[in-house]
Design brief:
Elements lengths: L1 H36 L2 E2 L4 E3 L3 E3 L5 E4 L4 E3 L14 E4 L5 E4 L4 E3 L2 E4 L2 E4 L4 E2 L4 E3 L21 E3 L4 E2 L4 E2 L4 E2 L4 E2 L4 E2 L7 E4 L4 E5 L2
Parallel strand pairs: 1-4, 2-5, 3-6, 4-7, 5-8, 6-9, 7-10, 8-11, 9-12, 10-13, 11-14, 12-15, 13-16, 14-17, 15-18, 17-19
Antiparallel strand pairs: 19-20
């Protein structure tokens, strides 16, 4: 029994060391390369693996203080199924992320505006996008202009694993979005909401 505990402890320490090493080198690289691209990064940012970042000419990506972005599969044992991606898709697009936010295998795609407040947490494999990517009209789907509408996520929101936040919605302060939800309409503050489409199921007292 003691031998098994010793082996388990060894692998636990090795795992933590490996994650710390990934964070150390990834953070140095990202801070240098992203600033070269024109991404605004405030102090205290930590990257676990290297996300893909695409900054459309003339657009804005701003990352707040103490932000944490996990991309390496070993950095979150809940299971990351892709690299994190933060991308703007027009010259007017902006992605503004506040302080103390944490994301794992996040995909954020903006053609207009995505604003995320302070202390926001998103579980693994969440998608946040403010446009349709392809036109809805079948006759224009190949070449038409997809619709877009701003997204606002207020302070201290928690978005559950593998949820999708679609165009034109706001999520109020302190609210929780359940895992695998699809948010198509506004969610008020101080509630738990879940489902497809996402609906309020409980309010905080």
């Amino acid at each position: 029994m003691k031998k098994k505990l010793t082996i388990a402890l060894f692998f636990q320490v090795f795992y933590r060391w490996r994650v710390s090493a990934i964070a150390f080198y990834s953070t140095i690289y990202c801070k240098i390369f992203f600033r070269f691209l024109g991404v605004r990064i405030k102090k205290g940012a930590t990257f676990y693996g290297i996300p893909r970042v695409y900054l459309f000419s003339g657009s804005t990506i701003s990352l707040g203080e103490n932000i944490r972005i996990r991309t390496s599969p070993i950095s979150n044992l809940i299971g990351l199924n892709r690299r994190s991606i933060i991308a703007t898709h027009s010259d007017k697009a902006q992605i503004i992320i506040g302080n103390n936010c944490g994301f794992s295998a996040i995909v954020i795609g903006s053609k207009e505006s995505i604003t995320i407040g302070n202390d926001v947490m998103a579980g693994a494999n969440v998608l946040i996008t403010d446009f349709d990517w392809h036109a809805i009209d079948p006759a224009q789907r190949q070449h038409g202009t997809p619709e877009s509408s701003p997204i606002k996520i207020e302070d201290n929101v928690f978005i559950g694993y593998s949820s999708t936040i679609l165009k034109g919605v706001s999520i109020g302060k302190n609210s929780v979005i359940g895992a695998n939800s699809v948010v198509t309409k506004d969610i008020p503050p101080n509630v738990i909401a879940a489902g497809n489409p996402c609906r309020v199921i409980k309010s905080f007292s």
